Amino acid sequence: MVKKPVPAPVRRALSEIGEDLATWRRLRSLTIAQVAERANVARGVVINLEAGTGATLESTLRVARALGVLDSLASAIDPYSSDVGRLRSAETLPKRVRHKAAPRPDPS
User: Fold this and answer.
1) Is residue 94 part of a domain?
2) In angstroms, rounded to a whole number, what is the distance separating the alpha carbons of residues 107 and 5?
3) 93: in domain
4) Could you tell me what percent of the chain has a pLDDT over 70?
5) Tally of domains in the chain
6) 0.70 cut: is pTM over it?
7) Residue 56 is part of which domain span?
8) 84 within domain boundaries
9) Considering only CA atoms, which of 80, 84, 49, 81 is closest in space to residue 64?
10) Crossing angle for the helix pair 32-39 and 43-51, nearest 10 degrees?
11) Would you call 49 exposed, middle or buried from its count of C-beta atoms within 10 A (0-12, 13-18, 19+)?
12) Which strand (E) or helix (H) includes residue 17?
């Protein structure tokens, strides 16, 4: 499988989140091994996260929980805390979003 290049904004976010998780770990005076044990992940996962090379979403959330910042992380992406979300909060959202198919050319 060919690995797709990571877009620059995603690389930047991975790096910033990794630095933030490392800062939280240090503020809590925890070692990488302690965080890994509390999160029930391998040490390499914590190392990769802090280095900005990423991990699965589940592993990232496990580490955030071990550091006591899971609720803050989940709140950060709450759609109803944004202006758009608040404006559209009264709307009934569809279960799915589908785009209409392009009309087929007439075969005649």
Assistant:
1) no
2) 41
3) no
4) 98
5) 1
6) yes
7) 8-73
8) no
9) 49
10) 110
11) buried
12) helix 8-27
